[in-house]
Amino acid sequence: MRKLITNGTIVTATDKFEADILIEDEKIVQIGYDLNSDGAEVIDATGMYVFPGGVDPHTHLDMPFNNTVTDDDFETGTIAAAYGGTTSIVDFCLSTPDKTLKEAVQTWHEKADDKAVIDYGFHLMINDANDAVLEELPQIIDSEGITSLKIFLAYKKEFQADDKTLFKTFVTAKESGALVMVHCENGDVIDYLVTKALAEGHTEPIYHALTRPPQAEGEATGRAIELCAMADAQLYVVHVTCAEAANKIAEARAKGYKVWGETCPQYLLLDQTDLEKADFEGAKYVWSPPLREKWNQDVLWNALKAGQLQTLGSDQCSFNFNGKKQLGRNDFSKIPNGGPFIEDRFSVLYSEGVKKGRITLNQFVDIVSTQAAKLFGLFPQKGTIAVGSDADIVLFDPNKERVISAETHHMNVDYSALEGMKVVGEPISVLVRGEYVIKDKQFVGKQGSGKYLKRKKFNQGEVEIDTVPTTLS
Ligand code: URP
Ligand code: ZN
Ligand code: ZN
Questions:
Q1: pLDDT by residue (tens digit) across 343-402?
Q2: Which atom belonging to ligand 1 lies closest to the Cα atom of 152?
Q3: Percent of the chain surpassing pLDDT 90
Q4: Separation CA 155–CA 235 (nearest Å)
Q5: CA 94 – CA 466 distance, rounded (Å)
Q6: Alpha-carbon dihedral 376, 454, 413, 181, rounded to 10 degrees
């Protein structure tokens, strides 16, 4: 299989240039001019940006959560991701105290292996770092290439870990070369505030936000940072929403701590008032941490621009409004937490970020693809356009306009949290390891064609993770 992509403008995290790309057997084999295209299918990318495929570091597909299961599985979720320009995801594998880690990972392979249409890896969620788990962990990191672990400091009585568990996980991660991802909210304080609000008769969705104040996120972020530093380990703070947390991360990085942060499209584009929508529509915007006051959006954009936050995860965790979100009709604390963003993550970052001058074109690639590949042990196989890299490529029309709607999206969920939003720029064709998955906006991929990604250990190969691109578009 040979393909030649010609006449396009290649954009990476550091460069923008016109050249052709020759693909052979899943890989990029040459980048340049007048390449020998004998026997190659020629793809004309005139007027297009040629981006590396997006890497989404944060998805929850087919995951049991909040007494139900997320509505997108590895088939629908990865098809939607591909339509949106994402060619690799790292999904959260849930471990439970009744199973070994090996069994938990096996369960996730069974969910994914015959379904995914793009490449995928797993993070491992740890809720009880008991002796058996800590003993098994290094083997799983080595044998499965699962080089990132997730701890929740919220969701009391479901996933919440105590500080000892968090600290032990940092110590093990340091020894085994894994990155620790932490959901930073103070679950005990939230539990108290939720119980109090319900006792006072407050059942509406807005109380989801009012019982999870930004200080609860800031406190937990600071705690995770200090425990990480005590263990001399490495921390990735997931879904940062507010100044309280973003500032803690910036301060830690200024001290040289090994701390990185992710935000999500929802926190850049939506705000707390969405939870006040009438007729229980506010439930469509219930996820954790919650949406914040609007001014936080500028804090997050500025943190991305300044390189204080490095990545954009979708936190894809879709629940239908009918049937699932409705479970919390009379009690906001029973609304399943999560929203659908896997499909629009890439294009809204371009439209709202690059088109509106908030980030540069190179920063867009860095945030949507490269940094996640570097942090999660996939670079340079993924996350860039370079000779030897997988031919994961998005042909992107930067001027195409569309309106986001549940009527036209491909996620298996009955609403869009971004309904009606106008977006400029759209992925037209998407290749995974040199094969079309999306061709001229049509899905042409094959169920189960996605490959499992065994990932490198944290910073194995001395990848320069903190590069903040300076090339202006
Ligand atoms: O509400 C959310 N974010 N659901 C997914 C689980 C998590 O906390 O990441
Ligand atoms: Zn979380
Ligand atoms: Zn999540």
A1: 999 999 999 999 999 999 999 999 999 999 999 999 999 999 999 999 999 999 999 999
A2: 8
A3: 94
A4: 20
A5: 29
A6: -30
Is 60 exceeded by the pLDDT of residue 471? no
Give the whole-angstrom CA distance, residue 108 versus residue 273.
36
Q: What are phi and psi of 418, to 5 degrees?
A: -115, 20
464 has a pLDDT exceeding 80: no
Report how far residue 399's alpha carbon sits from residue 428's, in angstroms, rounded to the nearest whole number.
11
Backbone φ, ψ for residue 273 (5° rounding): -65, -20
Which protein residues touch ligand 1 with a CB less than 6 Å away? 60, 183, 287-288, 315, 317, 337-338
Least confident of 94-108, 222-236, 261-275, 458-472: 458-472
- pLDDT tens column, 175-213: 999 999 999 999 999 999 999 999 999 999 999 999 999
Across the beta sheet with 148-152, the strand order is: 54-59, 86-94, 119-125, 148-152, 179-183, 235-237, 259-263, 311-312
CB-count exposure of residue 107 (10 Å: 0-12, 13-18, 19+):
middle
User: Ligand 3 centre from 457 Cα, in Å?
Assistant: 22
- 3-class SS of residue 409: coil
- Full-model pTM: 0.97
- How far is the C-alpha of 429 from the C-alpha of 436, rounded, in Å? 7
- Cβ atoms of 49 and 82 within 8 Å: the answer is no
Q: How far apart are the first and last CA of the chain?
A: 33
Structure tokens at 177: 């070369």
Residue whose Cα lies nearest atom 3 of ligand 1: it is 288
> Is the confidence at residue 55, as pLDDT, over 50?
yes
Distance in Å, CA 185 to ligand 3 centroid: 13
State the amino acid at position 345 in one-letter form.
R
> CA 165, CA 171: separation in Å to the nearest integer?
10
